[in-house]
Write a structure and sequence with these properties.
Strand content: 15-25%
Radius of gyration: 15 Å
CATH topology of the largest domain: Molybdopterin biosynthesis moea protein, domain 2
CATH architecture of the largest domain: Alpha-Beta Complex
Order of helices and strands: EEEEHEHH
Number of domains: 2
CATH class of the largest domain: Alpha Beta
């Protein structure tokens, strides 16, 4: 499962890969860097400067208002080959063999690890 979407009262909210985010989109939730520091608050309209800052601080995705069911749950960044992603997931599977792989947190962790492995060659 990649890039899941959640239906909330008042509209769709979806996690969108940073490569697919465009200026003018509105954040549905706060964006934090890897250490948990908030970079930009929910409701902010994104500018090119925000996107540069997100990339600089290693943000891989953000919750964007109005994105959801029409995008599909299997959306992946344009620069990621689905076959490479599947191979990365298989290569990482032994690292998660003693975990509950059905748990949402583990699913997210595995997804981030596989994307990082494909995009950067490391976990």
């Amino acid at each position: 499962m990649l890039y899941g979407f959640v239906e909330l009262p008042g509209g769709c909210v979806g996690k969108v890969a940073i490569e697919n985010i465009e200026t003018g989109m509105v954040l549905a939730s706060d964006v934090h860097d890897r250490s948990g520091r908030m970079l930009l608050g929910a409701g902010a309209e994104l500018t090119q400067k925000h996107l540069v800052i997100f990339r600089t601080w290693g943000v891989l995705e953000a919750d964007i208002e109005g994105h959801g069911s029409d995008e599909g749950p299997d959306q992946i960044p344009a620069d990621v080959d689905p076959l490479e992603l599947a191979a990365a997931e298989q290569a990482l599977a032994p690292l998660f063999q003693h975990t509950n792989q059905a748990h949402p947190a583990i699913i997210e962790l595995m997804r981030f690890a596989a994307l990082r492995k494909v995009q950067h060659g490391t976990v």
